[in-house]
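User:
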Amino acid sequence: MAGELRLEVHDFRSPERWRWTLRDAGGAFLADHEVRLDAGDWRFTAFSDLGRYLRWNAAPDRRIEAEAELVAQVGDWIGAEVFGPVGPALIKARPSAVRVVLPPEARVLAFRPLELARVDGTPLALRNIPLVMCDGAAEPGAKEPVGERLRVLGLFSLPTGGGVLNLRRERHAMSTLFSELGAVRGRAVEMRVLQYGVTRERLAEILKDGEGWDVVHVSGHGNPGELLLEHPDGSPDPVPAADFVDLLEPTAERLKLVTVSACSSAALKAADQLRALGVTPPAGWSGSASPGPVSPESVSAEHALSTLATDLADRLDCAVLAMRYPVVDSFAIDLAAELYGLLVEKGRPLPRALGMALRAVVAAPPTLDCPALSVTTPALFGARALELKLTAPEGEPVTFRPGSLKLAGLPPQPPRFVGRTKAITDASAALAPRSGAAGVLLYGMPGAGKTACALELAYTHAESFRIVAWHKAPDEGTDTTGAFTAFLTDLERKISGLELVHLAENEEALRAFLPLLTEFFERNRVLVVLDNAESLLTSDGGWRDRRWGPVVDALTGHGGFSRLVVTSRVRPAALEGRVEQIAIDALPAAEALLLARELPGLRALMDGRTRGVEPSDARELAVRAVKMAHGHPKLLELADGQAADSGRLRGLLEAGGAAWRETAGGLPEDFFTVVDRAAGVSGEDYLRVLERWTQVVAGGLSAAERDLFGFVCCLEEDDRLGFVLEAVWPVLWRRLGREGAVPEPEAVLGVLVRRGLASPEAGGRLGVHPGVATAGRAAAGQVFRAAVDAELAAFWQAIFDQAVEGQGGQELGEWVVRAGLGAVPYLLRRHAWAQAGWLLGRVLYRDDSRAVAVVALPALRRIAAAVRGGPGEAGTVFTLAWALQVVDASAAEAQLRELAERARAAEDDRTVSVALGELVKLCLGSGRLGEALELAEQKIAASRRAGWGPWTLLADEGRRVQVLAAMGKSEQALAEVERLWEQMAALPARAGADEVVEAWNVRELLLSVGRDAAARLGAWERALAFSDEMLASMRARGAAGTEMARSRFNDYFPLLRLDRIEQAWQLLAGCREVFERHQDGQGLGKVLSALADVEDARGHGDRAIGLERDALRYKYAARDVAALAVSHHNLGNYLTWQAGQVAAGLAHHLAAALVCAVIGGEGLEDSLWAAEHDLRQLPDPAQVPADVAALCRLVEEVPGVRLADLLAALADPGTLRHTYDQIIEAVTTAAGSPG
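Assistant: Predicted structure:
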């Protein structure tokens, strides 16, 4: 293959007269040609403006074929008349690129379709002969290199009223491509995308980024020579070429490639489609988009477009890939995917990459999605394009960074999203930081795409928010008991340090907290999406649960930076005025046609390619289907699912007609005759048709297919999984008394997907539209629904039992939790209160994390209400209190104490024993060690009276030893552990029926106490040995990830003291990832404190101080009393020894000492000694806090520290005053003593 060739214009007299010379890189002559064109020849007219010529000369009813014929004739003419002998010389040389040198007077040729020249019947573009338009100036100068990562800015601009483009599809495809290059191919690529609200100001701000951009990809509307951006109100803002170059100027030093294309309007495309379908489109679809007939004199458009491309190349010294003609979005997507893949991943030079991409994506024969004009549409400009390579460097090693995964928890983006430009632009304006709005309500009929719009907003604006939280409310008609708590839980998971769930049952406390929540949302940039809110509202817009109103008001009652997006069929009656309310209605006809072409069944009908159907009949059916769906996306999908069978589709359309006749206004007849959406159709009308169509489609299924459809609709959303269907379907089949072999579910599910009743989703789930699911459940009937509930409850119970049995005698902990929670909704519908409560108790026994507790609480409250006054009340109240411990410890303690007192009165020692056990843990966690020890001894006595078995009695002894260890009696505790371990060896391997504990639980309790006691005594290796044995037990039973991390965490201190600093750091980093992923605030407090310890050991004092301050904030939020005393002590050390802030260090040492003295915990002597050391160095004794209030003011300068509240909960004011005075006296006396 030859290198670069030079094709130069000489003696240019006019667009009909010039001379070519072709030379190789060394200047050797290869060919020349005197060009003499006949301006009267129709092919010259077409050559002058091919796009316009085809528009006005191709027959409308066979446009694709007619355009292909005209393009082939013009291509032959260009090859013979414009290139002559130069064409064969180019083919023979096979150059890497051809530098087309155009003097200023000949620049008009840059936007003539030169690549269309056919040699031996094939265009140059498809022979990989890349032409690059240059001005003959000096070679390009130096540019900043790509650097650590290739930076790509994608600009997709569609102003309101600018027509209909499927830019979202192109944007989504490009984002996916570059994400794959990074995640799958290991390339370092950063892509930023702008769509909706793309104003000059916003673009200028991004282009000022100090790092600069390597590639700018621009796609959207625009007249020749300009681009159409947006004004702040969404209206079009035409940007002339010179202004656009000025906007890009700040990134010129790094910029290497600009891609510019104006996409074909979907309205224009729809007009062609309608003509092909035999329907006359409205004038508004094509009038403004179609230029007048071409003439040899009409060259202003090509001149303007040439100016844009050449200005970019000349002034910015970059390569430009521009489109001579508007492109169809499918072609633009395919071309970009091929081009950037070859350029960025494969390292191909730009000219070669473009040639290879064209050969891969140009359709033969041409199609509506890749018309004949596509082959000559892309053109390269600028000398830099000749050898440009943009290989992305190798990426960094894959690491888990939770902070960068802000979209975690969001549903995946839908594969199709068409139109909605005005709605998304208006919503985008409201989401802007300084908009003054606080939220957006997207309301409208079911199935119109409200959720899709919310996802579009979330994904396209995530970069401008620090946190993105998504919550889907239950489907309408399903149980919403726990919806409010679930919403608060999702907020907690996303916003570290936020604690709301414990306030869910205390409206007074909740209302008192809400002003703080409002202030937080005002000052921070958080996006919260509440999807599917209609289930939370009454028909007149009132909240079914009154707690929602104040919380929504709190989230929107500000003029700050956060935003709330709500989707709902019903408009809430009372919303803050700062919430922008946007209707999401049916698609107008142009957008509906665009969506229909993306659906394979309807597309085949529109193209006349449906098997067994005459093309004219197929197109008539397509028109009827699109009209009957009347712009409703889900109705279009259902029609698409029947399109392969014309009889089935006709039946659906007849049923749709009948359903429309039952509505108030009937089916409007003007769908294809108006530019905008037809009025007079309500959401209820569409819902009626959706229900009827669902019934018809389901009615057309076989009996087995109909049963499986009903089964899927009756499942909980999280249970629409392959393994659940495969396991339960055969059992349900037999339960329903069906005859014959059980049909394979995979094959039947394929039918449901093809018919449009279901869709595969991420994670192996099967998605069912809420309206379709509602219709499916109704059609299934009560008997069928009851059968599903019974079998799913039994299925999850069996999984639970198998998980408890486990493998090799060791249970599978995570499956115990999943199965137990999975069975509960079905049991509740069956009113199986006792079984549901028992399962939830077993689940909490294995995993009492906050995440599990908040899921269990709503169901437990419902069970408690149902069994009130009955024999199961005590057990349910205990389980409810157990769950409450995690979210509201004080409420849990009150319930447990009441339960214990009632049980004592009834001489129910078993209940007393269980309740006291939980109270011991609560007192231990809150630092009331003396009370914890007393309760532990009471529990031992109650268990003996109750007749519990040896494992339970051993567990009671172990809990008492745990309290002793927390009180600092480590030697006694370690000896007790060894004694109890010997007793345990004589017990049966598994706990019997007379036990309320599992053997593994007792074993791990003793190992935990032994590990902690050994660590306190400085027996580091022994502590690690205890820990290894405990972790082995946990792995064997399949403990949850957070539980494993909490246990592993305790190894860090022995490792640190053994000078294994890096190993300790690695361990803590892993724990931190787990705690962040699960929003475990208590675990995060501990791990941050431990990381501060490690940084102190490394000599990084400032880092240690920062981490310990963060740790205190988390520990106070979690009310981890003993742990926060440690953090006060450690922070005092770092402030005194590392930062020289003695007064601040003293305050924290005194705070630690006071807390330890009040709770009776260990660490008091260490804190007193540290305070004494501080006092010796303190220059002014007046800096010693005079009383408890002064101490609290000092330490509460650390954000999140609430020492005064903590102390008030631990002791009365007199006790606190007396204890503090004793501490000050002891420290002062010791500091004044010699030595």
